């Protein structure tokens, strides 16, 4: 039966309700098992030795003394993870990032690792490893790294995407360009133009659970990996590639995950743990310290962005242009490209051009962080849009409404939009009571919009019906924040049975077909699509079984309200059969009843949000408090509204942290100065007000219930919303995120000096 | 290293263990006693994921040495429910969707329990400041504060 994923309006019974999540009790009693909560017999403790230099050639590594220490069972270096990338630069980058080969590329880059009988022996062993470095000049700043006289990190990097191709290597890995129309002609028509440079600093996802895994390589070539990850199937593939294992012989089990936000879509120490286990012949548990998480796992890009926008007096934007420079760590990425794509996605523009530059620097390899690359671009664009509205004397919301993209608009990155939520979220913001609430002294209000693509991708679900008629669905997308509840709701809806009769579990890589990661806000969107398809397949089987039980044609049986019902005048005396009735007879009608689905979930509907923020700035200290905050976002259809609100609130607060406080601080020596939660300060409970949410539902035409991804967009507007609020509070534009107290005071002083 | 013998009380039960001088209470709970509800988010007292209650006060168990717990009363997340009956805070956390990934939840529950013992009717501000030592990266704290308010109301109701 071909699966039709298109949206159909219907009365929904389960979807949209707020039942208790299935993993709740485990998590409030301390019984849920996360990455570090698993042990194996004979397990060793793994630890990693990291470079103290931002950029250094590794002249020599002597591990002999460490190997000789009593209790040390294995020491590995790059030699134990030989290069099997066959010239594939992306695979090589992952390998080199896991364990440095010729050069250490950033402070914290792994150079060796040990496995020992306990943590103190492992620690002592690290001290006995001798690494001789030749320290090289380093560069961490994006604009400095692009300059002609910057130290070149990698002699094999020649900028791609430019004509003619450069003959000398540089730190600029790639140029990308998007847009349409003629921006020069557009600017010529403008009555007012704003042209600015904006900067944002590097931040970390800040998940509270450090990376953790238990690796076990057996002598027969099989291996197991228990790990906190957003993508067990992807980890399996990457680890198998790097270690030369057969994919099917490596079984990856995802633990409960203590936050990821994109940072657990990439492998870090897992291949090293497997290499240690292979060498030691015993299971190895490897847990990163918080310092290692900051120094060596994925932060975002730091950016420098030029924006130019022109508009007519009536508020029509005539042209918009942005040049975006993003750091990607020591290896090429596609982070500026994503920034360039998302920059002007909220607006319907006749003339638009964006250019992205990928820049390598001596910082950790950049990883995805919730709507990766979009928040920085949105900060720049939404700041300029705000300033332009102000300059032509138009209300900031009205100005955006006038230029908002809608159904049929050609987006700045190419595709033509279907039904979208940017206009409706702006209208909702305009009429929201927050917009007209009075402000106190030293307070300012800001607003901003945000966009994220949302992804679908490869998905596989198994649905099994138990002998009592209750249902298990096994999914391959890791539950990062309530998706088992959402997927159970959707399965219950489609089958027409109560939520309580469905239990969703996350399967390991040997028990289910391949699934892409939980990223791109795809978890609930794509797995629910597969769950609906699997449920429809199971319904087909149940109709056939009912036909056998009744000895009538399957064509005379419909599925309604969780029951097989016979239709037509000849059968109307047959009492409907429930799932339990049919399941009880399964042994006599053809065996166990299941539904399976594998598909590529296409058509993830794009997502838009508008945020409103009030801040109070202390003019003496520059310290800023968010005093009121409202998130308005299109969910398509909110499957479990509590967890949709939770995504809105959580993303907003991460964005507030990014806007106000969070940043990687490097010393002149290129070493990270603040690798801990004390000095890298994420928002705490007492920093914040309640975060109001408003869920809009503009159905995604490509999902049976209209669902869109909801996880990421909420982090996109806050940087600009907060900065615009601060600018309005102190009457000075802010161009550099985070708008920390020193930056605000500097801006105030500069203004006072005129 | 010579081990130290320690006698203490954990969740009302007498417990004896051996530990090294440099082992933290968190290490002892997780690695020696199999009580893995307390989590290590930082190991430096900055995240509160390891929060436990010692003699009625919330402590970061990563900052307490195992040997220091001699003769003390320790409460951990594993002792919060009474058999199958969840503590009102636990029930309200689930009901209010106050957890997403849940790694911070045991720590928040311990801190909130100590808060409600001291202030049965806390203001929102009191809740926010009592919980300021516990980091949550997922929720934005809104639903956590509401869950604590809900539990406080229920517990006050249960008392009168
Ligand atoms: S682990 Fe103890 S406070 Fe973070
Ligand atoms: S629920 Fe994930 S850190 Fe709090």
From TrEMBL, chain A:
Keyword terms of this UniProt record: Molybdenum, Oxidoreductase
Spans annotated as Disordered: 1-25
Gene3D superfamilies: Aldehyde oxidase/xanthine dehydrogenase, a/b hammerhead (3.90.1170.50), Aldehyde oxidase/xanthine dehydrogenase, molybdopterin binding domain (3.30.365.10)
Compositional bias (Basic and acidic residues): 1-11
TM spans (from-to): none
Keyword Oxidoreductase: yes
GO molecular function, one term: iron ion binding
Ranges of residues in domain Aldehyde oxidase/xanthine dehydrogenase a/b hammerhead: 29-137
Highest taxon of source: Bacteria
Name of this protein: 4-hydroxybenzoyl-CoA reductase subunit alpha
UniProtKB/TrEMBL annotation, chain B:
GO molecular function: 2 iron, 2 sulfur cluster binding; aldehyde dehydrogenase (FAD-independent) activity; metal ion binding
Enzyme class: oxidoreductase
Keyword Oxidoreductase recorded: yes
EC number(s) per entry: 1.2.99.7
Domain 2Fe-2S ferredoxin-type positions: 4-80
Keywords: 2Fe-2S, Iron, Iron-sulfur, Metal-binding, Oxidoreductase
Keyword Ribonucleoprotein applies: no
Record-linked InterPro entries: 2Fe-2S-bd, 2Fe-2S-bd_dom_sf, 2Fe-2S_ferredoxin-like_sf, 2Fe-2S_ferredoxin-type, 2Fe2S_fd_BS, Beta-grasp_dom_sf, Diverse_Oxidoreductases
PANTHER family: OXIDOREDUCTASE WITH IRON-SULFUR SUBUNIT (PTHR44379:SF5)
The protein's name: Aldehyde oxidoreductase
């Amino acid at each position: 039966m071909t699966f039709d994923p298109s949206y159909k309006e219907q009365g929904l019974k389960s979807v949209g309700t707020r039942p208790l999540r299935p993993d709740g009790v485990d998590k409030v009693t301390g019984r849920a098992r996360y990455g570090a909560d698993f042990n194996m017999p004979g397990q060793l403790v793994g630890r990693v030795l990291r470079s103290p230099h931002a950029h250094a050639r590794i002249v020599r590594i002597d591990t002999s003394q460490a190997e000789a220490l009593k209790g040390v069972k294995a020491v590995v270096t790059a030699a134990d993870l030989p290069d099997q990338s066959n010239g594939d630069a992306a695979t090589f980058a992952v390998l080199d990032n896991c364990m440095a080969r010729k050069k250490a590329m950033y402070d914290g880059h792994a150079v060796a690792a040990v496995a020992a009988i306990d943590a103190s022996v492992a620690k002592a062993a690290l001290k006995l490893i001798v690494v001789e470095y030749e320290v090289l000049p380093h560069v961490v700043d994006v604009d400095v790294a692009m300059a002609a006289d910057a130290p070149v990190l990698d002699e094999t990097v020649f900028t791609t995407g430019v004509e003619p191709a450069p003959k000398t290597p540089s730190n600029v890995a790639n140029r990308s360009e998007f847009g349409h129309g003629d921006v020069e002609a557009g600017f010529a028509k403008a009555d007012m133009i704003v042209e600015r440079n904006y900067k944002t600093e590097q931040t970390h996802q800040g998940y509270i659970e450090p990376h953790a895994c238990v690796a076990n390589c057996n002598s027969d070539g099989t291996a197991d990996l228990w790990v906190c990850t957003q993508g067990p199937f992807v980890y399996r593939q990457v680890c198998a590639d790097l270690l030369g294992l057969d994919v099917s012989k490596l079984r990856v089990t995802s633990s409960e995950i203590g936050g990821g936000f994109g940072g657990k879509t990439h492998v870090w120490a897992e291949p090293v743990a497997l290499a240690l286990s292979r060498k030691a012949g015993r299971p190895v548990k490897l847990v990163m310290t918080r310092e290692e998480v900051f120094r060596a796992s994925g932060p975002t890009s730091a950016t420098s962005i030029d924006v130019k926008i022109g508009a007519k007096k009536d508020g029509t934007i005539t042209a918009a242009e942005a040049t975006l420079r993003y750091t990607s760590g020591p290896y090429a990425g596609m982070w500026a490209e994503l920034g360039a794509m998302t920059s002007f996605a909220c607006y319907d523009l006749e003339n638009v051009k964006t250019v992205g530059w990928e820049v390598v620097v001596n910082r950790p390899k950049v990883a995805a962080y919730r709507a990766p690359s979009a928040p920085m671009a949105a900060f720049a664009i939404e700041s300029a849009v705000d300033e332009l509205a102000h300059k032509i004397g138009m209300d900031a919301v009205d100005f955006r409404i006038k230029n908002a993209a809608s159904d049929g608009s050609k987006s700045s990155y190419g595709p033509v939009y279907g039904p979208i939520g940017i206009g409706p979220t702006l209208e909702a913001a305009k009429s929201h009571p927050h917009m007209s609430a009075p402000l106190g002294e030293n307070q300012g209000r800001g607003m901003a919009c945000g966009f994220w693509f949302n992804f679908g991708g490869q998905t596989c679900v198994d649905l099994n019906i138990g002998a009592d008629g209750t249902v298990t669905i096994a999914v391959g997308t890791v539950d990062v924040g309530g998706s088992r509840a959402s997927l159970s709701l959707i399965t219950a809806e489609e089958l027409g049975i109560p939520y309580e009769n469905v239990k969703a579990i996350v399967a390991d890589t040997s028990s289910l077909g391949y699934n892409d990661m939980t990223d791109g806000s795809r978890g609930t969107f794509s797995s629910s699509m597969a769950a609906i398809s699997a449920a429809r397949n199971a319904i087909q089987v149940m109709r056939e079984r009912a036909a056998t039980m009744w000895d009538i044609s399957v064509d005379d049986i419909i599925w309604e309200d969780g029951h097989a019902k016979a239709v037509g005048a000849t059968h109307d005396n047959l009492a409907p059969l429930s799932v339990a009735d049919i399941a009880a007879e399964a042994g006599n009608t053809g065996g166990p009843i299941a539904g399976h689905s594998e598909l590529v979930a296409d058509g993830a509907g794009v997502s838009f949000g508008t945020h409103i923020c009030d801040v109070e700035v202390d003019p003496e200290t520059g310290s800023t408090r968010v005093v009121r905050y409202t998130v308005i976002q299109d969910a398509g259809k909110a499957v479990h509204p509590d967890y949709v609100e939770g995504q809105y609130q959580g993303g907003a607060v991460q964005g507030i942290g990014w806007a106000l406080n969070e940043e990687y601080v490097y010393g002149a020596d290129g070493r990270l100065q603040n690798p801990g939660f004390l000095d890298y300060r994420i928002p705490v409970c007492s920093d914040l007000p309640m975060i109001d949410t408003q869920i809009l539902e503009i159905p995604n035409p490509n999902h049976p219930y209209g669902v869109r991804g909801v996880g990421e967009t909420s982090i996109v507007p806050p940087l600009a919303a907060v900065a615009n609020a601060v600018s309005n509070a102190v009457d000075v534009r802010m161009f550099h995120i985070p708008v920390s107290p020193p930056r605000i005071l500097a801006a105030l002083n500069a203004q006072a000096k005129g | 290293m010579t081990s130290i013998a320690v006698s203490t009380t954990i969740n009302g039960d007498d417990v004896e263990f051996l530990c090294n001088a440099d082992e933290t209470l968190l290490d002892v709970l997780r690695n020696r006693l199999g009580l893995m509800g307390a989590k290590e988010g930082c190991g430096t007292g900055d995240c509160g994921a390891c929060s436990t209650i010692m003699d009625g006060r919330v402590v970061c168990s990563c900052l307490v040495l195992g040997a220091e717990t001699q003769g003390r009363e320790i409460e951990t997340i594993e002792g919060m429910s009474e058999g199958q009956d969840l503590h009102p805070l636990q029930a309200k956390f689930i009901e209010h969707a106050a957890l997403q990934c849940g790694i911070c939840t045991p720590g928040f529950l311990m801190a909130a329990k100590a808060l409600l013992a001291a202030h049965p009717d806390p203001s929102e501000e009191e809740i926010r400041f009592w919980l300021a030592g516990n980091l949550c990266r997922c929720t934005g704290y809104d639903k956590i504060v509401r869950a604590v308010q809900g539990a406080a109301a229920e517990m006050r109701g249960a008392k009168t």
